[in-house]
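Retry 2 of 3 after timeout on previous attempt. Resubmitting structure tokens to design endpoint.
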């Protein structure tokens, strides 16, 4: 018999209402998901998205996850924010949409921690919209960590060909070298191992990308790879992890894609995300590793330019949903 956590629905956040979030959530639900789900969002917005797409879905507003009953052809929407105005501007940032998207996420986090939902899958939000609402957060990852009181966390991007976990996330490139510390490297390597094991890999093979060109060329192009990253790798190996590097960043992703490694630890945002996104965002999934619950997300933004035109591809959301199920204990 499944336990209560296994029977709990997956929570999907609607994201920014002015973007493609409502559309891809409706499309995914209309296609059919592999487990029960409920949506943290705005019921009227979801109804408009369903009408736009011609989706025959019964959209029901509920007060809390405890009221969820599920059922075929039904999307249950948890009312967890102020109703959005009917004249909300579409395809651009706005404070009401930013505040609502933040509120949806916070409600889902609280319910995940309480065990009311088994995982969180997030549609895209707009950082600009949140900033207009006075919410000074760089993105989903930091909100998730702060509200769940998680100190050790990391962003991982995954698709069928690559898994990449980041040492540093949302910061200026000029600030990255100072953030490359032994503690940061050790944390990232440990979380990479944990993420792979959650995904069913019993003995993860971890490759660490260097910070500098040619992984520093023995100190010629910078000392971080020699003095910080290398010793952290040696310490992790001594602790029993299968980790190697630092490897040159211009070739390590190709080697991982060919099957030499299960995951690459990248030093900064674009070093890690460009290779994954180059392979296509349709199947990419963003995972926040280290949280006390599973959270996955689409590997793309709000796409304001195509929002509410019925053009958005929901493949990444479905992939994120499926991975959340696979990673749920």
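Retry 2 succeeded. Sequence:
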């Amino acid at each position: 018999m499944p336990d209560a956590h296994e029977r709990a629905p997956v929570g999907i956040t609607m994201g920014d209402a002015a973007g493609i979030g409502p559309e891809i959530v409706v499309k995914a639900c209309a296609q059919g998901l592999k487990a029960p789900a409920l949506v943290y969002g705005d019921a009227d917005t979801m109804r408009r998205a369903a009408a736009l797409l011609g989706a025959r879905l019964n959209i029901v507003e509920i007060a809390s996850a405890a009221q969820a009953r599920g059922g075929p052809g039904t999307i249950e929407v948890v009312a967890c924010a102020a109703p959005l105005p009917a004249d909300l501007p579409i395809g651009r940032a706005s404070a009401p949409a930013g505040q609502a998207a933040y509120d949806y996420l916070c409600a889902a986090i609280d319910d995940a921690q309480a065990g009311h939902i088994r995982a969180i899958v997030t549609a895209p939000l707009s950082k600009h919209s949140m900033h207009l609402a006075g919410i000074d957060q760089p993105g989903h990852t930091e909100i998730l960590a702060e509200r769940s009181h998680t100190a050790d966390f990391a962003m991982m991007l995954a698709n069928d060909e690559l898994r990449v976990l980041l040492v540093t996330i949302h910061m200026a490139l000029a600030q990255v070298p100072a953030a490359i510390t032994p503690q940061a490297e050790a944390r990232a390597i440990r979380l990479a191992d944990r993420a792979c094991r959650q995904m069913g890999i019993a003995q993860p093979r971890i490759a660490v990308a260097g910070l500098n060109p040619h992984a520093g060329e023995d100190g010629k192009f910078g000392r971080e790879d020699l003095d910080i990253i290398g010793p952290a790798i040696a310490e992790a190996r001594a602790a029993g992890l299968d980790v190697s590097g630092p490897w040159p960043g211009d070739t390590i992703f190709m080697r991982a894609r060919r099957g030499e490694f299960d995951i690459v630890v990248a030093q900064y945002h674009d070093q890690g995300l460009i290779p994954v996104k180059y392979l296509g965002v349709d199947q990419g999934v963003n995972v926040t590793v280290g949280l006390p619950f599973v959270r996955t997300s689409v590997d793309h933004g709000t796409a304001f330019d195509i929002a509410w035109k019925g053009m958005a591809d929901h493949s990444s959301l479905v992939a994120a949903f499926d991975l959340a199920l696979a990673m749920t204990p």
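Attempt log closed. Residues 1-5 have pLDDT under 50 and may be disordered.
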